[in-house]
Amino acid sequence: MNSSTSTTTSNASGNASGNALGDALASAPVVPVVVLEDASHAVPVANALLAGGLGIMEITLRTECAPDAIAAIAQSVPEVAIGAGTVLNGAQYRIATETGARFIVSPGLDEEVVRLAGDDGIPVYPGVATAGELQRAWNLGVRIVKFFPAGQAGGVPMLKALSAVFRDVQFIPTGGVSASNLGDYLSVPSVIACGGSWLTPGDAIASGDFDRIEGLAREAVGIAAKHRG
Ligand code: 3PG
């Protein structure tokens, strides 16, 4: 353990710029949240997102094949910044990073996950929905959080209220984000990126309609360009 990071995670999550993830978010501030039922879909989905202009992807650890899917993308599509989502505890953190995840996303705040990522220098984005959760994350050294579930937790007005108080925190709203409200979220200065599953619909993945996924990615990139310049 690196003693300088044992009590703070600022190296891991304080600032996404200056690393591959920061670069990926800067080019298109949209994080596709992907649920895969079959690891063989991983590489075609990654290639479709990449073709549409998105070089980042979060695979949720909600399905059995997720570790294999992460490993396949890490090996075959290295230009995509691959991360793991729905990382609930330290054991899942280890599985995710051992299979090649370059960043970690959680629906809530787990101190062990944040601490492990801090020790390893892996960007970690815990989920928060309230000021109390955000304050706990802030006191762990976290400066970029997932705002989840964004729609149900108050949407843009809640984000603005939290941002007014936690002025050095950046947010990744996720949950209820779609092409129809992406621009609203990206217009909030403290929003570093938006996440969501709308880019990779389950039926498109299952039927092999990767052109549709590419189109959804391209649409999101276009919206982001309009709102971010
Ligand atoms: C997540 O996995 O982070 C959310 O469930 C994604 O929410 P969405 O399906 O509303 O985009």
Helical region count?
11
Global mean pLDDT: 91
If you consult CATH, what is the topology?
TIM Barrel
Number of folding domains?
Answer: 1
CATH fourth-tier homologous superfamily:
Aldolase class I
State the total count of DSSP E strands.
9
Second rung of CATH, namely the architecture: Alpha-Beta Barrel
Unreliable segments of 5+ consecutive residues: 1-18
Largest sheet: 6 strands, parallel
Which bin fits the share of residues in helices? 40-55%
Dominant shape? globular
The helix-and-strand class reads alpha/beta
Kindly provide the name of the CATH class.
Alpha Beta
Task: Describe the protein in words.
By secondary structure, the protein is an alpha/beta fold. It has a single domain, classed as Aldolase class I (TIM Barrel). It has eleven helices and nine strands. It has helices at residues 10-13, 20-27, 42-51, 66-76, 90-98, 111-120, 131-139, 155-165, 182-186, 202-207, 210-228; strands at residues 30-34, 56-60, 81-85, 103-105, 124-125, 127-128, 144-147, 170-173, 194-196. Strands 5-4-3-2-1-9 form a six-stranded parallel β-sheet, sandwiched between helices. Strand 2, helix 4 (66-76) and strand 3 (81-85) form a beta-alpha-beta unit. Helix 3 packs parallel to helix 11 (210-228). The longest helix is centred in the C-terminal third of the chain and has 19 residues, at 210-228. The radius of gyration is 16 Å and the shape is globular. The model is unreliable at 1-18 (pLDDT under 50). Bound molecules: 3-phosphoglyceric acid. The site of 3-phosphoglyceric acid has 12 residues, from strand 9.
